[in-house]
Amino acid sequence: MVINEILYDPVPGGVDFLELYNHTGRYMSLNGLRIGNGNEEVMLPFGIIIEPFAYILLTSDTLKYLLEFPQTSLNTLFEFALPIMPNEGEMLFLRRDTLIDIMNYGDELHSSLLASTEGISLEQLSPEMSGSILGNWYSAASTSNFATPGYQNSQFRSSSMGSTSLRVAPKVFIPGSRTTA
Fold first, then answer.
1. Are 52 and 93 in contact (CB under 8 A)?
2. How does pLDDT run across 158-180, given as a tens digit for each residue?
3. DSSP type of residue 70
4. What is the model's pTM?
5. What is the DSSP letter of 139?
6. Residue of 19, 32, 96, 160 with fewest CB within 10 Å of its CB?
7. CA-derived radius of gyration, the chain
8. Residues with Cβ < 8 Å from 110, sequence gap 6 or more?
9. Nearest to 94 by CA among 81, 78, 83
10. Residue 109 in 3-state DSSP?
């Protein structure tokens, strides 16, 4: 279970959300799961089971949330009093008895090309990598309306992709010639 996407600076009249992702092949119970920010810690409601490779969305006001993100599947959305997520940035963690995931969010993780981060969520590039790796977070794409709650992240990269390289053979070629240099 990982923190996979966060909207901490919603548009005026909007609402924060937090997306959790079960990146395992097992069903997981949220019983006893806590979300905190270093100053405040809240326990998730009992009785919620998340399927393998599925998302769950937490927000403090589902009505406001659905006005902005109507494409969200209702069976993944839960109204819940989240810890305060200041627009200036903060730490968020997920734990039971031990730490499960942790991240530090803030505007510095967003694309430097953005004039404002208002209404733009931060997405993990790879949920298989630690949320504490700052380079594993990026702004949601404009083509996805700046958020992908309940769906694969717009900036998703599989950690199994590794690095790719391009090999050209022959190393040098001369246009119009059948020989190589």
1. no
2. 655 444 444 555 556 566 766 65
3. T
4. 0.82
5. E
6. 160
7. 20
8. 117, 120, 122, 138, 139
9. 83
10. helix
Contacts 24+ apart (CB under 8 A), 174-177: none
- Return d(Cα 103, Cα 131) in angstroms, integer: 5
Convert 40-65 into a string of H (helix), E (strand) and C (coil). CEEECCCCCEECCCCEEEEECCHHHH
| Torsion angle in degrees (nearest 10) through CA of 14, 32, 53, 19 | 10
Cα(23)–Cα(128) distance, integer angstroms: 7
Q: Are 55 and 76 in contact (CB under 8 A)?
A: yes
Of the listed ranges 22-26, 58-62, 135-139, the one predicted with least confidence: 135-139
Residue 37: helix, strand or coil by DSSP?
Answer: coil
Tokens encoding 149: 């709650």
Please give the structure tokens belonging to residue 89. Answer: 């940035």
Q: Which residue has the higher pLDDT, 164 or 64?
A: 64
Extents of the domains making up the chain = 2-161
For residue 64, which amino acid is it?
Answer: K
Across the beta sheet with 122-124, what order do the strands follow? 77-79, 55-59, 17-21, 2-7, 122-124, 137-139
